[in-house]
What does this fold into?
Amino acid sequence: MTGANDPLLETRLYDELRRIAAGHLGRERDDHTLQPTALVHEAWVKLAKQHDAQINGPSHFCAVASQAMRRILVDHARGRHADKRGAGADRVTLAAVDGDDLASGANDQPEVLALDGALDKLAAVSRRQAKVVEMRFFGGMKIEEIADVLGVSTRTVDGDWRVARAWLQREMHRA
Amino acid sequence: MAAPHTRVAAVFLEARSLGDDRRAQFLDQACVANATLRAEVEELLGWDRTRAPFDTPIDIRWDAVHTGADGPPVPTRIGPYDIVNVLGTGGMGTVYRARQSNPARDVALKVMRPGLTTPSLARRFAIEADALGRLQHAGIAQIYEAGTADDGHGPQPFFAMELVEGDVLTRYAERQRLDTRARLELLAKIARAVHHAHQKGVVHRDLKPSNILVTAAGEPKILDFGVARVTDADVEAVTRQTDAGQLIGTLPYMSPEQVAGTPDAIDIRSDVYALGVIGYELLVGVLPIDIRGKPLPEAARTIQEDVPTRLSSVARTYRGDIDTIIAKALEKERQRRYQSADELADDVERFLKHETISARPPTLGYQAAVFARRHKGLVAGLAGVVIALAGGTVTSTALYLKAEDQRIEAELKRGEAETARAAEERARNAADAARVEAERQSKIAQSVNRYLTHDLIASVSPSSNPTMREVVEAAAASLDERFPDDPAIEGSVRAAIGRTFKRLGDYEKAEQHLRASVDGLIASLGPEHLETVLAMNNLGLLYVNQRRHTEAKALLEPAVEVAERDLPADHPEMPTLLMNLGAAYSGLGEFAEAMPVLERALELVLALFGEDSVETSRAMANLASAAGRAGDRDRARELFEKCLAIDRSLFGDDHSETITDLNNLGGFYLDEGDYDRARPMLEEAVARGRRVFGDRHPLQLRMRGNLASMYSELGEDARAVAIYEELVEISRDSLGPDAAMTHSLMNNLAGTYADLDRHDEAEAAYVAVLESRRRTLGEDHVQTLLSANNLGAHYRKQGDLDRAEPLLTNASAGFEQRLGPDHRRTLSAKSNLGALLADRGRYDEAASLLSGLLPPTLEAWPADHWYPALVRARLGVALTGQRRFKDAKRELLQAHDILDAALGTDHDRTVQCRGHIVSLYETWGQPDAAAQWRERGSAPR
It folds into this structure.
């Protein structure tokens, strides 16, 4: 049984998601906005086809993908790849889905980093709560799917989410 | 000091669930004398009310257009165009914003990836360039030029297109909050533009919202017209199945004929279909056919077969005409769609003007056609006979013509010599015979054709939505008086009907017709006519599938004899005949007979199709499985491996053939007890099978069953039980409680229950299987005997020796008679009986039986397999009973070594063997040795 922490799968996913993302940016004039679930779905189709017997199902896969997605976005935000790609050509920003009044605007990369840092701290006091946020926010997973991966009730996940979001906001505000 | 997080969390959650009035009171109580806790909770409650930036799952906006990391460097110039920047990269290539100097304008330049270009593609580009240039319509992004540039990296086809600024169609409609009317007006405009292109002979083939931009002025512009046609990108993507990721955005808009991967069937009506999907999505925001999360083959099948959800059932406001219009555009069959995009536009506009539309809701009249489409495979099965006969006519006619030529030639040479006259005579006779045969074949083809079209299709009542079964049954019922004068035709038709029943799984009716077909053909054409032989092959295969191997053998042996004599060696039916006969021999356990027949089948197939063909890999699989069961394990392994390699290269990893091979090879290693090799293969096969077959497919059941039996052999019983329980349920539900698969799975489940000491459940399952097998297969059937053996062994382990003995005696005798003395099953039943005799204290009988079993057992299993060791251990117990302590010690120690190596030191069987060793030393009067062994961990006997 592969746990949600599967470094090999995560590495592959990381590469795959990055590749897919690059492909999507490529669709000229296409919708440049992608739901993480759509990305993850594509990664799923590809990896499932190409590699792998060890993926235990979509929820598990999404959980690992959430982790990979977080890494990708953090990497982007830190500009780790900027040198490879030439001057600031590649920019990833976060935006709330529901509208133009973005809570985090086009230049909000620090938001990702702040969340990433706060999540690390949260993980130190409650690993599960941090996971819930990671899966929900970076993986676009539903409460039921998260409950499935963690092997707890949806009620528990909901409680975790409530606590975590308040806790993280406070933490990010402090920082 | 901060309060513990869990405490804070608990108080916070409770507090936030309370109303403001009760909250303060609760906090007073919960945080009594703990101000830190209270402050922390209060703070969190404050944050609970604000909107967090991470509340909604991220939406990733990939603003960047270019990632230099993955692509080649950006060229500065392609053909006459100066590259400004990259607009995007996709599966087929890259799109640049480029500048043209004459006329001075910016264009979108789509350049095919160098690796994708071939000389023929470049030629097609040149041909298309002209047609595409003639597309001039306000609704179409003008294609300025399609050409080929070569700047040192080989020819690179490109399109230069009008650069359009605008929003993707669906996004535009959303942003502008367009009402239904405005959306329909857009759809009509798009359809008119598409029609313009159609009139110029250009089909788009890749219409989708992302290929349609709406300008600030609200005018739609279609991009990439003709691009897919030039490249066959759609067909290629579906048929090669390599680019699922790229396809996800495209697949939902593809018509059934496109996903079928047949370029010839694609025409303007494929675009009409795409317009239907676009209209649907534009109106209700979802796609008519949901293929989300489906693997590609499944998605393609869905598009070809599933009826789209009616627009009106997604949104009731669209009941009536608009529902009808969209449904007509989305018809599976091109003939039933609007025959042009203009017709679609007309109807949409009529609707907007409240006029009567041309499309009509579907009537009952075409349900027969719907039926035929739904059952395409089966109808094709029936129609196959027509094609086969038509093919026969062609061959016969060709023979006739050739003979005619010879006759004429002979005539020209007449008078030259007496021998010429004789030659002419022979040629004339041959020509006459060939003509007669050709006429006969043609007559058969016509009759069968008439029969199928008139009687069969006419029998489909349009109002009742009949099943294939009803149609075939109607056809079968009307068959009796149809061909009073021509038993040969009746035989052919019956063969077709029989095959259809077989595919429907109705073996009884299939047999009835195939039998009648064979009898009719023997009576009319004789037992040695090719058609008779082929009919015998059909019936023989049915018997093989039913495991009625004796009857299959009786039928196929003479058929093969005739075929070997009369058919040319490269006749394509020859190998199937041989394979079916080989399967019959194998089924009877006559592996010595099976092997040469299957070897010869493989030889023929290799000569006919070459090494890299599915026919070859199938023949290899047959031979491999016979070789394995005949005990030629090296040959079996070699063939299974080759088979897997061939299918992998032919089909890739995710194909039913490859997966089956993987399962077979894994199963082979499992039989060998080589779990390290078996495990990854079986697990991979199951994981892939889940995606390719789905969970209810019999093959998937079998593969998971194999995997579970491996887990159970490895002592991972809980895991095995969980799988088996699920499988039994699926199998009962989908195949029925008396199905062979259900029996096997229940049997294995029972065994695993027993391993887990869930004896009552084990017994109940064993008894149920045995009774069902007795009832459906008869007392003497191998499977029934197997059940008797298993239940007997179970009773024996429970100490219920009185019930065990008759079952084991019966199974041993039955197996010996049906499979021979050296078969694994005979050996294991007898070994169980031997153990039982020892249990009863009949040590002499037990020792003589078991010592006789040991040599053939060592032959039948690999030397390091646990099973022979188990027999050895049982012999050791019997010898202990006989007080032949030295012999017993030798056998038991050797058995323990092997069990330890094969299964591990903590496996039940190994532990049990140590128990036997302890009792040996105790009986022998060597308490020290007994104690030593007891310390190593042994099960009490």
